[in-house]
C-alpha cells in the first residue's frame, strides 16, 4: 500500500514554506532578518525554495552590532550574492553615533541590547510592515509562547498577555497603520532539527560553527573569543583551545564550547548528547530569570 | 543517535489540557525528564527556583511555566509549546490551561493536534473538566484521545479504581465522535507507566504513555481522498530563464495530486490538467497533504490567491450560507447580526451573523436555547452568510478546508474560531 507519510523534517519545511508564502501574500513590504547565523540561514534557504523559480521577493536585513566575527560577515555577503537577494544593513554603531543608543560600560559591556533600537529604526526607515526571523520556541521559555505571526504596536512592543490566538494554519496579519508584525517561520524547529536539515540539504554555514583552534579566555565559566571589542581582566589570560560556536550573536556575549566536532555529522552527535541548551552560552540571557521576556516586550527579536 | 536515523522520524503534535493541580505540568516534566530531554542548565534553573519557593522536591512543573505572571501565580494562562524527540518521533506539545475561563486557549492549542492527552485524577474520577476536555478534543477533531488516569499511587494502584473510571469515560465518550480512545493508569510524580512500565500495576498489560506516543498510527490523520489545493500565491519569475512560467503555490489540504490529473478551479469552474509539480530540486511525481508545493497547469487560465483547485468529480461545497460551531475568543461578546471579517484557507471575505441556534454547556453537553449571548470561552452553533461564496468541506471531513476564523474589523483581533458543520 502506498504510504503518505512525511518525515518530521519534510513536515517542518512544508510548514515554514507555507508561512513564508503567507507573509509574501499578506504584507506589502516584508523583510527577512539575516544575521548569518544558522537559523536565519535555513529560513533564507527555505525562502529560496518557497518562491523558486522566482527570486526571494523581499530584502534580507542585517542588524549589525559592529562586533562581528569576521567569518560571519564574509559568509553573509557570499550568501546574498549567490541568492541574488537584496541586503540592507542597519548599523548599531550609527545609532550610537547619532545619540539614539548609549554604549554599555564595564567589563561585561555588550551591544546585544542596543540592537533593538537599530532594528526598530531600520524597520521605520524602510517602512517594513513585517520582519521575519529565525527565532525558535525551544530556545528560551518566553519564546515558547510566541506566535508565528506576532503583532507589535507602534512602538514595536510585544504584549505577551494579549496575543492573538493562532489556530490551525490560519494566520491573521491584519494591522492598523504604523503597526507591524514579527513572523517566525521556524517556530517549531529545535536545534537538532536545524542541524539535521543543514546536513540533509547540504547547506553551507559559517566556518566558526565547526571546531577550530582559537584564541580565547574564560569569563564566569564561559569560553569567550579574544577580540578587540572585549576588555580582558588580568585574571583572564588568552589561551588556545579547540572550540566551536553553537550560536552566533554579538561577539561580546557569545561563548564558545570546547569541541572536536569538525563536521556536520559530528555536530549532530554532539548536540544529541549535549547537556546544556545552546543559549546556555549566551551571557545576555543570564542577567535574570525573565531577561528574555523583558527584552522582547521592548521590541527585541 | 545515528546521524542519519532522523531520515525516517515522524512528527506527532499532541496537546495536554489540565488545571493547576491535576499534575499536567508534572507529567510533561516527567516525559521530558525520563526521555532525557531536559538540559542541565534548565534543570539547575528550576532546582534553584524550587529551593527559593521552599519546595521539598525539584518541581518539574516549573519547566513548562514560561511567562513571569504565570511563575508568580503558579498557573498556566497561555498555550506553551514544548519539544522533545525520541529516536522514533519528534514531538510538539501544546500545553494548555484547563480552567473553564481558558477554554479558548485549549481550543487554540488543540487545533493542530494529532493526539490529546486528558488527565484524570484517580481520586476524583470523571469530573466536569474531564468532560469539557473530552468534548473540546472531539469538537476540534483530534483523531486520538489518550486518557491518563493519574495519581494511581494515591489510590494504592487499585485496578478497580482504574476500571470504574474507564467505564465512566467510555459511557461519556460514546456520545462524541472520537476515532481512537486509549486508557493508561499512571503516576506522573513517581513515573509509573509514563516512560517506564510500572512495577506497581502488574494487572495492567497495556502500553506505557510513551509507547503510545511513539507508535500510534498517524499516517491516516490527513485526508488523502478529496483533492484540495487552496492557492496561496502565484509565482511568475518573468526572468530570462523562465519568461512564461506561471506556478500556483500553496499547501495541499487534501487528496493526492499527480501530473496529468484533470482538475477544476473553483469558483470559476474552468478545467485543465496538472502539468507539473515543481520544486527547486526537480519535479515531483505526486503531492499530498500537508506538502507545500508549486503546481503548473496545461492551460493558461486566470487563477489567483483564494482560488481552490479540486477534481471535477469531487468538488468542495461552494456557498455563502453555512452553519458553524464557533468558540468565542474575545472579551468583547459576539454582536448579534454583527459583521466580521473571515479568513478561510487563503480567502478573505466578510460575513454577517444570521442566527445563534444554541450554545453548548461544555461541562455536560446540554444545549442552551434560552440564552443566545455568546461570550468569551463559549461555544455556539450559529448560521452565517458571507459576502462571497466560500469553497469548503465539513470540518469532520477536512480540518483545513472546514475551519475559519472571525476577525473584528475595528481592532483586527482574532475573535472567533469556527468549524463548519
List the keywords:
heterodimer, A: 301 residues, alpha/beta, Rossmann fold, six-stranded mixed sheet, four-stranded antiparallel barrel, 16% strand, B: 421 residues, alpha+beta, Elongation Factor Tu (Ef-tu), domain 3, eight-stranded antiparallel sheet, 7 helices
Report on the architecture of this protein.
The complex is a heterodimer of chains A (301) and B (421). Chain A is α/β, with parallel strands linked by helices and 301 residues long. Helix content of chain A is 31%, strand content 16%. Chain A folds into 2 domains: 8-193 and 290-297, HUPs (Rossmann fold); 206-283, no CATH class. Chain A has a 6-stranded mixed beta sheet, with helices on both faces. A 4-stranded antiparallel beta barrel of chain A has the order 7-8-10-9. The longest helix of chain B is centred in the middle third of the chain and has 15 residues, at 159-173. Chain B is built from 7 helices and 23 strands. In chain B, 47% of the residues are buried. In chain B, strand 2 and strand 3 form a beta hairpin. In chain B, strands 7, 8, 9, 11, 12, 13, 15 and 16 form an 8-stranded antiparallel beta sheet that branches. In chain B, strands 2-3-1-4-5-6 form a 6-stranded mixed beta sheet, with helices on both faces. Chain B has a 6-stranded antiparallel β-barrel with strand order 17-21-19-18-22-23. Chain B is an alpha+beta fold and 421 residues long. In chain B, 17% of the residues lie in helices and 34% in strands. Chain B starts with 9 loop residues before the first strand and ends with a strand. Chains A and B meet through helix 1, helix 2, helix 6 and helix 7 of A and helix 2, helix 3, strand 2, strand 3 and helix 4 of B.
Amino acid at each position: 500500500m502506498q504510504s503518505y507519510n512525511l518525515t518530521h523534517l519534510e513536515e517542518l519545511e512544508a510548514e515554514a514554506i507555507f508561512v513564508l508564502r503567507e507573509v509574501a501574500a499578506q504584507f506589502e513590504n516584508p523583510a527577512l532578518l539575516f544575521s548569518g547565523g544558522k537559523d536565519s540561514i535555513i529560513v533564507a534557504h527555505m525562502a529560496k525554495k518557497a518562491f523558486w523559480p522566482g527570486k526571494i521577493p523581499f530584502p534580507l536585513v542585517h542588524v549589525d552590532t559592529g562586533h562581528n566575527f569576521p567569518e560571519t560577515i564574509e559568509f553573509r555577503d557570499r550568501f546574498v550574492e549567490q541568492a541574488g537577494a537584496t541586503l540592507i544593513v542597519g548599523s548599531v554603531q550609527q545609532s550610537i553615533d547619532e545619540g539614539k543608543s548609549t554604549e554599555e560600560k564595564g567589563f561585561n559591556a555588550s551591544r546585544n541590547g542596543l540592537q533593538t533600537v537599530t532594528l526598530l529604526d531600520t524597520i521605520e526607515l524602510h517602512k517594513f510592515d513585517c520582519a521575519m526571523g529565525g527565532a525558535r520556541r525551544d530556545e528560551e521559555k518566553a519564546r515558547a509562547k510566541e506566535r508565528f505571526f506576532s503583532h507589535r504596536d507602534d512602538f514595536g512592543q510585544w504584549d505577551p498577555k494579549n496575543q492573538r490566538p493562532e489556530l490551525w494554519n490560519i494566520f491573521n496579519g491584519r494591522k492598523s497603520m504604523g503597526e507591524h508584525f514579527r513572523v517566525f517561520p521556524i517556530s517549531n524547529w529545535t536545534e537538532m532539527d536545524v542541524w539535521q536539515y543543514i546536513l540533509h540539504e547540504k547547506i553551507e554555514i559559517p566556518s566558526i560553527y565547526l571546531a577550530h583552534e582559537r584564541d580565547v579566555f574564560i569569563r564566569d565559566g564561559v569560553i569567550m573569543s579574544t577580540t578587540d571589542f572585549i576588555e580582558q581582566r588580568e585574571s583572564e589570560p588568552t589561551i588556545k583551545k579547540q572550540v566551536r560556536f553553537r550560536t552566533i550573536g554579538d561577539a561580546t556575549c557569545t561563548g564558545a564550547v570546547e569541541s572536536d566536532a569538525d563536521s556536520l555529522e559530528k555536530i549532530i552527535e554532539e548536540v544529541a548528547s549535549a547537556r546544556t541548551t545552546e543559549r546556555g552560552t549566551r551571557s545576555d540571557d543570564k542577567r535574570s530569570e525573565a531577561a528574555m521576556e523583558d527584552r522582547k516586550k521592548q521590541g527585541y527579536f | 543517535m545515528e546521524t542519519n536515523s532522523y531520515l525516517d522520524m515522524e512528527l506527532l503534535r499532541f496537546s495536554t489540557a489540565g488545571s493547576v493541580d491535576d499534575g499536567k505540568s508534572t507529567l510533561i516534566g516527567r516525559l521530558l525528564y525520563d526521555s532525557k530531554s531536559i538540559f542541565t542548565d534548565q534543570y539547575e534553573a528550576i532546582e534553584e527556583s524550587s529551593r527559593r519557593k521552599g519546595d521539598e522536591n525539584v518541581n518539574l512543573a516549573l519547566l513548562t511555566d514560561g511567562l513571569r505572571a504565570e511563575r508568580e501565580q503558579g498557573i498556566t494562562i497561555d498555550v506553551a509549546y514544548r519539544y522533545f524527540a525520541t529516536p522514533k518521533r519528534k514531538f510538539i506539545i501544546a500545553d494548555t490551561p484547563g480552567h473553564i475561563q481558558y477554554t479558548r486557549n485549549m481550543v487554540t492549542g488543540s487545533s493542530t493536534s494529532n493526539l490529546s492527552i486528558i488527565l484524570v485524577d484517580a481520586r476524583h474520577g470523571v469530573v466536569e473538566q474531564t468532560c469539557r476536555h473530552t468534548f473540546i478534543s472531539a469538537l476540534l477533531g483530534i483523531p486520538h484521545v489518550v486518557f491518563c488516569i493519574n495519581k494511581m499511587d494515591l489510590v494504592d494502584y487499585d485496578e478497580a479504581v482504574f476500571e470504574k473510571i474507564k467505564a465512566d469515560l467510555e459511557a461519556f465518550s460514546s456520545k462524541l465522535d472520537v476515532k481512537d480512545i486509549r486508557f493508561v493508569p499512571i503516576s506522573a510524580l513517581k513515573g509509573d507507566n509514563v516512560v517506564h512500565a510500572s512495577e506497581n500495576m502488574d494487572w495492567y498489560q497495556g502500553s506505557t504513555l510513551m509507547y503510545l506516543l511513539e507508535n500510534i498510527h498517524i499516517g491516516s490523520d490527513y485526508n488523502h481522498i478529496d483533492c484540495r489545493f487552496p492557492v496561496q500565491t502565484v509565482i511568475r519569475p518573468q526572468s530570462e530563464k523562465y519568461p512564461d512560467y506561471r506556478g500556483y503555490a500553496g499547501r495541499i489540504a487534501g487528496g493526492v495530486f499527480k501530473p496529468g490529473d484533470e482538475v477544476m478551479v473553483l469558483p470559476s469552474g474552468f478545467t485543465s490538467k496538472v502539468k507539473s509539480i515543481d520544486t527547486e530540486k526537480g519535479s515531483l511525481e505526486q503531492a499530498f497533504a500537508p506538502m507545500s508545493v508549486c503546481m503548473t497547469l496545461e492551460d493558461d487560465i486566470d487563477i489567483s490567491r483564494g482560488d481552490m483547485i479540486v477534481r471535477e468529480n469531487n468538488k468542495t461545497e461552494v456557498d455563502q450560507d453555512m452553519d458553524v460551531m464557533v468558540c468565542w475568543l474575545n472579551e468583547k461578546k459576539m454582536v448579534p447580526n454583527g459583521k466580521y471579517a473571515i479568513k478561510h484557507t487563503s480567502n478573505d471575505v466578510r460575513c454577517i451573523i444570521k442566527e445563534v441556534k444554541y450554545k453548548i454547556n461544555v461541562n455536560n453537553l446540554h444545549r442552551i436555547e434560552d440564552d443566545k449571548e455568546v461570550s468569551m470561552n463559549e461555544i455556539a452553533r450559529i448560521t452565517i452568510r458571507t459576502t462571497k461564496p466560500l469553497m469548503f468541506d465539513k470540518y469532520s471531513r477536512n480540518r483545513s478546508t472546514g475551519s475559519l476564523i472571525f476577525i473584528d474589523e475595528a481592532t483586527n483581533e482574532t475573535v472567533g474560531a469556527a468549524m463548519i458543520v
